Amino acid sequence: MKQNFYLRSALSVILLMHSVASIFSGDVNDFGRLYLDTIGFKPFGLYLAWAVKLIHLFSVFLIWSDRFVKIVSISNLFIMVLGIYFVHWKNGWYVVGGGSNGIEFNVLLICCFLQLIFTKYPYRNRENRSW
Questions:
Q1: First and final CA of the chain: distance in angstroms?
Q2: How many domains are contained in the chain?
Q3: Threshold 0.90, pTM exceeds
Q4: How many CB atoms lie within 10 A of CB 44?
Q5: Which residue ranges run through the membrane (predicted)?
Q6: Which domain holds residue 20?
């Protein structure tokens, strides 16, 4: 994990905190039942919410183990784009300051995952590949 060390570290912390905090607080269940179900995902809202949180959680370990980094990045990029569309777009740009719950943080995360996708990884051997 020599390439993009600081970027991967920051993304790992963000994904870890975003997943673990909502899992232990029960917010993931509320998001699934009280939000996703009400915007048309019923009866799958709860399952989608858990899928998102588990993808975030497993992404941390895959990023740190330097495995499937591109697949992890594409998966999280997809989640971030859907998050903008379904949750954050209506709140504008700003997360804090000029507004709240906006898209600015998701845009930054999307750019970070794009950097991981388009980074060329040297392949020393088949076992140490970052797909």
A1: 13
A2: 1
A3: no
A4: 13
A5: 5-24, 44-64, 71-89, 105-123
A6: 5-117
Task: Give 1-58 as a DSSP string.
Answer: --TTHHHHHHHHHHHHHHHHHHHHHTHHHHIIIIIIGGGTTTTSHHHHHHHHHHHHHH
Q: What is the pLDDT of residues 41-87, one digit of tens each?
A: 999 999 999 999 999 999 999 999 889 999 999 999 999 999 999 99
- Dist. CA 17–CA 116, nearest whole Å: 20
Length of the chain counted residue by residue: 131
- On whether the CB atoms of residues 58 and 18 are closer than 8 A, the answer is no
Residue 52 lies in a domain: yes
Contact between residue 114 and residue 77 where contact means Cβ atoms under 8 Å apart: yes
Task: Say if residues 76 and 53 touch (Cβ distance below 8 Å).
Answer: no
Per the domain annotation, does 63 fall within a domain?
yes
